[in-house]
Amino acid sequence: MVDVNLQHISKSYGDTNVIRDINLDIRDGERLVLLGPSGCGKSTILRMIAGFVPITSGDLLIDGSRVNELAPAKRQVSMVFQNYALYPHMTVKQNITYALKVHKVPADVIERRLAMVADFLELTPYFDRKPAELSGGQQQRVALARATVKSTSVFLLDEPLSNLDAQLRVAARESLMELHNRFKQTMVYVTHDQVEAMTFGTRIVLLRKGDIQMADTPENVYHRPANVFTARFIGSPPANILSGIRFADDRIDLGDGAGFYLFRNWRDLLGPALQGELHLGVRPEHVVVKTEPHPNSMPALVERLDNMGATTGIVLRVGNQHLVASSRFRRVEQGDRVHVSFYNDQLHFFGPDERSLGYPANVLAKKDALGRGEELARLIGADDAAQAREFDEYATSHAVGSSGSDPADRPSIGVPD
Amino acid sequence: MNLYPAKASRSWTVVALIIAVIWLFPILFALGTSFRPLQDVFANVVNFIPIPPTLENYAKLAGRLDLPRVIANTFSIAATVTLLKLLTAFLAAYAFTYFEFRGRNKIYFVFLATIFVPFTVTMIPNYLLIARIGLGDNILGVILTQVADASGILLMVAAMREIPYSLIESAKLDDVSDRRIMLDMVLPLVRPQLTATGIWFFVNSWNEFVWPSLILRSEQSYTLPLALQMFVSAEGGTDFAVAMAVSVVTMLIPVVLYLTFQKYIIGTFTGAGIK
After folding, report:
1. By the 8 A CB rule, do A13 and A33 touch?
2. CATH number at residue B176
3. Do A23 and A55 sit in the same domain of this protein?
4. pLDDT of B236
5. Pair A243, A303 in one domain
6. Nearest by CB to B164, which of A52, A83, A89?
7. Is A40 in contact with A207 (CB distance < 8 Å)?
8. Which one of B99, B162, B170, B177 makes the best mutation probe of the A interface by having the most chain A beta carbons within 10 Å?
9. Residue A250 buriedness (CB in 10 A; 0-12 / 13-18 / 19+)
10. Chain A contact for B100, CB < 8 A?
11. Are B142 and B77 a contacting pair, CB within 8 Å?
């Protein structure tokens, strides 16, 4: 059972700090993904854990003991390299067993471990081939086999799928997951691909310029981003971040007279923050686009349509802001005048420092209930009625269109369809 | 896509052929002349086609020279020099490529700078040194000053830099010692470049004239190039035909080596950006 702890880890080259005071506890058996754009320091962190990059300050603990000065060989970690680093002059079998042979592991033990790993990764038919005679996916599996056969508990993976084409990538990811289910290693996985991170990780650490932006489960990274950077980085297309918005008279003003009523739960939460500078985040899938005005909607202009296969990206101008909505149906055309609203539960507010301002209690309850269908439905049902009443009151007092009696015409809350 | 139209490519072929003929001419001349009697050679120098061919020059050569001994001398010097240079070049290149130590780049630069020191600069000090330690007229004296060669280090460093570093890292992570990395990883992976460099060293040493001529004085320690000189300025005039026979014997091994390994040789020297 092996934990890896990074305590106040920094790395600088001369005056350039590439990693700044990172604290991270990697728990035994978890699949931790280090995610971030190029130059964020994710590979540096991985290579510091492996021991290839000296640590400038801070403590690195593997299995409870400090290993800063320990040679890579003594750290009991395995690594899968981006280019797989297979020995080109050795056969598949020699590649997998080389390290064991060097350490004079008894032949019968080698054979047993080899059989188990190769069988699992379906490599047995290729034992006598050289790496150059294998496909990319097979090479990747040999690299996995070579790392697994050592039976170390910490597995470091440096962009292991990035040299594979899209179709192979899915299969390779699956074999990686199966490997983890079978051998339960602690995996640290570096990638710049957010989809890979979301699908593979049990926890994602999002990095930017050597700082941790957020370290949390894929669900939380997606549904409650800690800051603007996280909201923008995760999701495809990325979340809309509307900056320079103002709040007045219970409404969020998007300029040019466009705006929407902000429900009480948000106003109570945000309080005085509403008087300052705000950033509003809305994911494209949480923007409702209709051809008719609907409760709490704003007029908008369709500027462009982006076909993304399963969905269509609708690029809109609302007030003086641009935003993208994604829709499964292409109901509008370029140049159409439409009406948009946001799901009230799916708003993200960020303060002037671009940090999240949090979520109202009932929204958090729903976010927590995600994936637990029944409870979520109950929570939504209760909120639905209350918010319809709230909007009716507001509409009456401000003489705007009410939500009417049609339940389908209620303001958009909850989870998208 | 063909960037060169057929016509242009044909005229380049003609140019290449002409250059090849110019370069081959001395070799063919030596080869042809070595099979002609001396009187014929003096009668008509230019027409070097031996009709009918004769082996009398080779017979004369065998009579005047202990040919097996001379070849053995040449070979043992060339082979030893080559092995020593390769050994030192490989070890030094490994250190320069994979070890981090203070002043690494500066030391490497100083090593490389020695490539540009002309042989004539070091010739006299080396000669005095070899004479002092009593290795004059000994093939060991020829070998001793040639145990390392910076151009070999340069070529080996270039070869090792082509090995993806992650291979070495992967081995280090597996707790493989430097000795094993050297023998199991680096050596097999640089074998083509090592072979080519070795042939280059071997041929250079095989053909070497000035340095052995300073050290080796007695006939039984002669190498082929020194033996050749015996016939060029021999008392009683130069016997061109026999001299050509010695030339042919001298170039036989280098040509065979080159033809056998030319694929490696071209790859190595174009790869390292030399010549």
Report:
1. no
2. 1.10.3720.10
3. yes
4. 57
5. yes
6. A83
7. yes
8. B170
9. middle
10. no
11. yes
A390 and A314 both lie in a single domain: yes
Looking at the structure, tell me whether residues A277 and A324 fall in a common domain: yes
State whether A73 and B172 contact (CB < 8 Å).
Answer: yes
In a domain, B56, yes or no: no
Does the CB of A70 have a partner CB in chain B at under 8 Å?
no
pLDDT tens digits for range A55-113: 999 999 998 899 999 998 888 899 999 899 999 999 999 999 999 999 999 999 999 99
Question: A73 at the B interface (CB within 8 A)?
Answer: yes
3-state helix, strand, coil in chain A (%, to 5): 35, 30, 35
Cβ of A52 within 8 Å of Cβ of B169? The answer is yes
Judge whether A102 is closer than 8 Å to chain B, CB to CB. yes
Contact A77 B164 (CB under 8 A): no
Selecting from B167, B176, B189 the residue whose C-beta is nearest the C-beta of A85 gives B167
Longest dimension (CA), chain A: 85
Q: Please check whether residue B2 touches A, CB under 8 A.
A: no
| CA–CA–CA angle A77, A82, A86 (5° rounding) | 75
CATH number at residue A34: 3.40.50.300
In a domain, B8, yes or no: no
A417 in a domain, yes or no?
A: no
Q: Among partner residues B170, B175, B185, which is closest to A79 by beta-carbon distance?
A: B170
The structural domain count of chain B equals 1
Domain carrying residue B171: 67-272
Q: What is the pLDDT along chain B (275 residues), one digit of tens a residue?
A: 455 556 667 888 999 999 998 998 888 888 888 888 887 777 777 777 877 888 888 888 888 888 889 999 999 999 999 999 999 999 999 999 999 899 999 999 999 999 999 989 999 999 999 999 998 888 899 999 999 999 999 999 999 999 999 999 999 998 899 999 999 999 999 999 999 999 999 999 999 999 999 999 888 889 999 988 888 765 656 778 888 888 888 888 888 888 888 888 877 776 554 44
pLDDT tens-digit profile of A308-353? 888 889 999 998 899 999 988 777 889 999 999 998 888 999 999 9
* Partner-chain residue, chosen from A51, A89, A102, that has the shortest CB–CB distance to B174: A102
Q: Identify the domain boundary among A230, A245, A277.
A: A230
Peptide bond into B52 cis (omega under 30): yes
Residue A416 forms part of a structural domain: no
Structure confidence at residue A386 (pLDDT): 82
In a domain, B202, yes or no: yes
The Cα angle at residue A312 between residues A308 and A317, in degrees rounded to 5: 120
pLDDT on residue A157:
93
- d(CA B1, CA B21) in angstroms, rounded, equals 31
Q: Which of A230, A265, A293 is the last residue of a domain?
A: A230
Strand duo A312-318 + A321-327: pairing: antiparallel
Give me the residues of A, 109-168, that contact B with CB < 8 A: 146, 150
Task: Residue A337: give its domain's CATH number.
Answer: 2.40.50.100
* Domain assignment present for B15: no
List the structure tokens of A245.
Answer: 């918005």
| pTM of the entire predicted model | 0.79
pLDDT for residue B238: 72
Interface test with A, best of B163, B172, B174, B191 (most A CBs within 10 A): B174
Q: In a mutagenesis test of the B interface, which of A79, A104, A113, A142 is the best target, namely the one with the most B β-carbons within 10 Å?
A: A79
Query: B166 and chain A: CB distance < 8 Å anywhere?
Result: yes
Judged by a CB distance cut-off of 8 A, whether residue A99 touches chain B is yes
Q: If we measure between CA atoms, which residue out of A367, A344, A280, A274 comes closest to residue A318?
A: A280
B-chain CB neighbours of A71 within 8 Å are 172
Q: Are residues A154 and A61 in the same domain?
A: yes
Residues from chain A contacting residue B173 (CB–CB below 8 Å): 50-51, 72-73, 77-79
The answer on A368 and A219 residing in a single domain is no
Q: A179 and A304 share a domain?
A: no
List the single best residue of B173, B179, B183 to mutate versus A (max A Cβ within 10 A): B173
Could you tell me the residue range of the domain that residue A365 belongs to?
231-409
